[in-house]
Amino acid sequence: MYNLGMSDETEEEQTPAPSISIPGALRMVCLPGRHVFEQGMPSNQVYMIDKGRAKVTVQDGPHTIQIAELGAGDIFGEMGVLENESRMATVTALEETFITVVSRSDLEKRIEKINDEFVRAIIQSLMKRLRQTSNTQIHYYKEMTRVQDRMSSLAQKAHEGIDQARRDAFSAEVMPLLDQLEGLLDKYKK
């Protein structure tokens, strides 16, 4: 599993979830390793972590890429519900995690209570923009995973395929190529 874009917050630094009263919401407890939902599933609920931690992962072929870690107070699953799209990631409890669950119909009723159509349009616009940004981030992580795999494969081939006596000569030839690669990265980074 690749860990990309994760929070630096440690368990001890977690702040408790804000005390939000949500009439009609359900509560659930997820044990470590249990999925709250999986990538590709229909989006029918929104979740808020009351206590605990969960990871957000995306499956890309044989790779599982961790793109975020969630903690107390974090809300997730809202994009799929508001846009009526399937889940774009899997969320898995890292420890015993207490979660508040709000159904699609309850969320839709709450949004309908917003009388200002302009505010509702802003919400829809923000959701669309957030999904586009998330998709771009996921694409970036997938590309980074492919590069990491390629580099690991090349390093393994070099380690297994070159005897110790010839590694210094190999290294002397490869280092200028890596410098060129770094120059290309700098060129396109600007």
Provide the descriptors you would attach to this structure in a database record.
190 residues; alpha+beta; Jelly Rolls; five-stranded mixed beta sheet; four-stranded antiparallel beta sheet; 9 strands; 45% helix; 24% strand; elongated; disordered N terminus
Topology:
Layout: E1 2-3, E2 26-30, E3 35-37, E4 45-51, E5 54-60, E6 63-70, E7 75-76, H1 78-83, E8 90-93, E9 97-103, H2 104-112, H3 117-161, H4 164-189
Parallel strand pairs: 1-6
Antiparallel strand pairs: 2-9, 3-8, 4-7, 4-9, 5-6, 5-8
Structure report:
The chain has 190 residues and is of the alpha+beta class. Helices cover 45% and strands 24% of the residues. The chain is built from four helices and nine strands. It has a five-stranded mixed beta sheet, with helices on one face. The protein has a four-stranded antiparallel beta sheet with strand order 2-9-4-7. A hairpin with a 2-residue loop joins strand 5 (54-60) and strand 6.
